[in-house]
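Good day; I would like, with your permission, to put a structural problem before you. A protein sequence and the structure tokens that stand for its backbone fold form the material at issue. I would ask you to consider whether the tokens describe a fold that such a sequence might reasonably adopt. I set the record out below, with my sincere thanks for your time.
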Amino acid sequence: MNNLLKLAAAMAASCLTSLAFAADTTTSLRGIDVVAPDQAPEVKTYAGRRPGTETPVARTFSTQPPVIPHAVENFDEINLDGNQCMDCHSGATYQKKKAPKIGDSHFIDRQGNKLTEASASRYNCVQCHVPQVDAPPLVDNTFKGDAARKSVRKN
């Protein structure tokens, strides 16, 4: 009988808890109707134009992959046959093209061995590096990166 009373109390508490959460006013970024199909987002223009004409975008924190400061919509897709990023950013061409060289970390394989060519695991540049787009944030954000903290320390 005692176990039956405990079970009934637990079921009542569970029902009350679920009713409390059912009254939650949290809304989705999509809107109220979560099962409605997503609408295609509006097309955003890239902050930069031609490669080499824009100043690099400052990093927010020290280990952040740099963003691409130029448009990439006319670039070929990165696949096994080619990577157009390497036309300017490879170790062999970056000085002639006056472009930043890919990072030294890209020349180390998963076992920590130094390589003469970029590691195959770093071949898909846009997996980490993204073009900068002038878009408003989806949610409020008060994040202060390394640059903001450094300027506060100096003052």
Q: What stands out?
A: The chain is about 25% helix and 0% strand. The domain at 48-134 is CATH 1.10.1130.10 (Flavocytochrome C3; Chain A, domain 2). Residues 35 and 137 are 23 Å apart (CA to CA).
